[in-house]
Amino acid sequence: MKLSRGQMGRRLLGLAVAGVALAAGGSAFAELGQPAPWEWTLQASGSPVMDNITWFHNFLFGLITVITLFVLALLIIVVVKFNAKSNPVPSKTTHNTLIEVAWTLIPVLILVGIAVPSFRLLFLELDVPKADLTIKATGNQWNWTYAYPDDKIEYTSIMLGEDDRAKLASPPPRLLGVDHSLVVPVNKIVRVQTTGADVIHSFAVPAFGIKIDSIPGRLNETWFKATKEGIYYGQCSELCGKDHAFMPIVVKVVSDQVYADWKKCVQSNKDDCIDQPQGGKTAKQSVRSDGNSKS
């Protein structure tokens, strides 16, 4: 069955409307710091680095869309104008100086236009500014140990089981909740030093725009500056064994006063500090500020 131009146009319009509705739906479900159903964009930004990553992504997406449409238009023109029926006597032109200069110079300019913001973003990610807080994240099979060297705080963060998660008044997303979160103050530069205790892991929090390998015997570092209070989720992003999928990272960003109160709470060896999930009590810290194990 052949479709008329009108029918084809209506079907294409319907597909476009459906695409816009799907995009709008994905944005509507988006929540800061975590993935959302039908999400098709990057996670909402929670740091200056992620702001730049999002801008660069959108810039490249727009650029490749224009290039793709331009090439598509050229192909359509060639098909319509230069087929055997419309053009029975083909041209024997072999060179065109203007076109040859253009198709050489324009791609070069495009690549330069991409390279400049790309190198600027790489420098922003790799150049760690003077930090207000240093945290060491050690990847284990299969959990994370967080240490605050300046405050002599250290503890292990383990994923919540389904039974513990179900007991909470506000359950975290499945496979992303932990018994003890990483707590940091808002609008402070946090330097993250990471290593692996056994195999290679990867410390990644999408909303902050950070992802860096945790390699045994090597200390890598990155940084972020959380600009909004809230809870941000990440995961180990390097295959590290059978329970690789069960190594979530939870960063709780709080005000300066709440952060100071949390440090006092942990250093006092209390078991109801804000690094634990809200709405329920879980296991005690595996390692407290004094380095002694607690069961």
Secondary structure blueprint with pairings:
Layout (H helix, E strand, L loop, with lengths): L4 H25 L18 H34 L15 H30 L6 E8 L2 E6 L4 E5 L4 H6 L14 E4 L3 E8 L4 E5 L4 E5 L5 E6 L4 E7 L11 E7 L1 H12 L28
Parallel strand pairs: 1-5, 4-10
Antiparallel strand pairs: 1-2, 2-3, 5-8, 6-7, 6-9, 9-10
Helix pairs in contact: 2-3
Give the end-to-end Cα distance, rounded to a whole number of Å: 72 Å
Number of strands: 10
Strand order of the largest sheet: 3-2-1-5-8
SS element count, helices: 5
CATH topology of the domain at 133-267: Immunoglobulin-like
Helix content: 25-40%
CATH class identity of the domain at 133-267: Mainly Beta
Proportion of residues in β-strands = 15-25%
Rg, alpha carbons = 26 Å
Low-pLDDT parts are 20-29, 279-295
**Derived structural class:** alpha+beta
Under the CATH scheme, the architecture of the domain at 133-267 is: Sandwich
Mean pLDDT: 85
Strand-and-helix sequence, N→C?
HHHEEEHEEEEEEEH
Shape, principal axes of CA atoms? elongated
**The CATH homology group name of the domain at 133-267:** Cupredoxins -  blue copper proteins
| Largest sheet, strands/sense/barrel | 5 strands, mixed
